[in-house]
Amino acid sequence: MKVVSVVGARPQFVKLAPIAKAASAAGIEHVIVHTGQHYDPMLSDVFFDDLGIPAPDVHLGVGSGSHGVQTGSMLGALDAVFDEHAPDWVLVYGDTNSTLAAAVSAVKLHYPLAHLEAGLRSFNRRMPEEHNRVLTDHAADVCLAPTEVAMGHLASEGLAERSELVGDVMTDVLFQVRDSVAGTPSALVEELGLTPGEFHVATIHRAENTDDPTRLAEIAAALSSLEHPVILLAHPRVVAKAAAHGIELTQGSLIAHAPLAYPDLIAAVLASRGVVTDSGGLQKEAFLLRVPCTTVRPETEWVETVDLGWNVLANTSDEIAAAVSRPAPQPTDAAPYGDGRAAERVIDELLRRAG
Ligand code: UD1
């Protein structure tokens, strides 16, 4: 069996790591295509290096652009790649423009399409990711869902027969990295002279939070007035938008810092008193590490983190301040994101359906 994985953005490299390992263990042919959506070394190369992912077999070098230009450039380039490799499966990950481009190219060329992390919904049609995930699920031949809630969404859209609950591959990689950094001090704590348990780790990069200067200024002001230091691991998008609008990302309690490699991020989160984010992956990682999370969005796809009390949605300055100072959540041993063996199930499912 031959699988072509298409990835392009930071969270997809994390998801690719356990899949590449499981594919290798099963002895199947696995071709990795990097669209080039993320090209900064700290958003791309460090993940391949740290997580032991084989170098991409194909790199499209597409880079940044408007949604149409970026997605269209990938789409145009992928046709030839798929035809050259003639895969049994095209495997796409999550909800970025790289996901949608590969999905459209694969189905137009009649290559079977599998969507990993299928069935997530925010029901917010202003989010570019929401269109990407809905369109990809409906194009896919198999929807590989991370949670029961995702399976429910797929069923309610008429996709039950082609859906399979496999668990969350980010759990696989997170548990391995958590164990590998256990006992080693956080490089971020040492570099900035932070006191463990007395700072927050923050990431803000969503278009909804960065593109409107008033909204970005409001979030920066809210974070800058929190009691404890807030280390903003600043994605290039937020740096560019803040610079364009004259918004300071280092002010008061708020300290801007470059993005971290994955093991350093996990070590920093483990050492922190809490996470403040609009990232999907980080909400879940915080929960799996049992670190309280505050999510700067009106809704989340990862509803289990909220239902279990480890994540609070907060939008205004007052809501953010109240959420980060809330009492510690109730301990739980719930495991809505699987047992850390999702990638094996993905490969088994692809083998079964290919057969
Ligand atoms: C993309 C995904 C988002 C995901 C995020 C993870 C889409 C629509 N969005 O958002 O779902 O959560 O990745 O990080 O696909 N830039 C750089 N260097 C890079 C990459 C981007 O400087 O390596 C800057 C450019 O100014 C670019 C901007 O960031 O225009 C946005 O990048 P883009 O890839 O369009 O989307 P992300 O915000 O990264």
Short descriptors:
13 strands, 6-stranded parallel beta sheet, binds uridine-diphosphate-N-acetylglucosamine, 7-stranded parallel beta sheet, alpha/beta, Rossmann fold, 46% helix, globular, 2 domains, 355 residues
Descriptive notes:
This protein is of the alpha/beta class. It has helices spanning 10-26, 45-50, 67-85, 97-108, 128-139, 148-156, 169-181, 187-192, 207-210, 213-224, 236-245, 262-271, 280-288, 303-307, 317-324, 342-354, and strands at 2-7, 29-34, 58-59, 89-93, 113-116, 142-145, 163-165, 200-203, 230-233, 254-257, 274-277, 293-295, 311-313. Helix 3 (67-85) packs across helix 4. It has 2 domains: 2-168 and 338-354, Glycogen Phosphorylase B (Rossmann fold), CATH 3.40.50.2000; 180-324, Glycogen Phosphorylase B (Rossmann fold, 3-Layer(aba) Sandwich), CATH 3.40.50. Helix 13 links the parallel strand 11 and strand 12. The mean pLDDT is 97. The termini are close together. The strands form 2 sheets. It has a 7-stranded parallel beta sheet, sandwiched between helices. A 6-stranded parallel beta sheet has the order 10-9-8-11-12-13, sandwiched between helices. The chain binds uridine-diphosphate-N-acetylglucosamine. Uridine-diphosphate-N-acetylglucosamine is lined by residues 9-11, 37-40, 43, 64, 95-97, 128-129, 205, 235-237, 240. Residues 9-11, 37-40, 43, 64, 95-97, 128-129, 205, 235-237, 240 line the site of uridine-diphosphate-N-acetylglucosamine.
CATH architectural arrangement of the largest domain: 3-Layer(aba) Sandwich
Shape: globular
Secondary structure tally: strands = 13
Strand content: 5-15%
What is the CATH topology descriptor of the largest domain? Rossmann fold
Q: In CATH, what is the homologous superfamily of the largest domain?
A: Glycogen Phosphorylase B
- Sheet with the most strands: spatial strand order: 3-2-1-4-5-6-7
Cofactors and ligands:
uridine-diphosphate-N-acetylglucosamine
- Number of helical segments with 4 or more residues: 16
Largest β-sheet summary: 7 strands, parallel
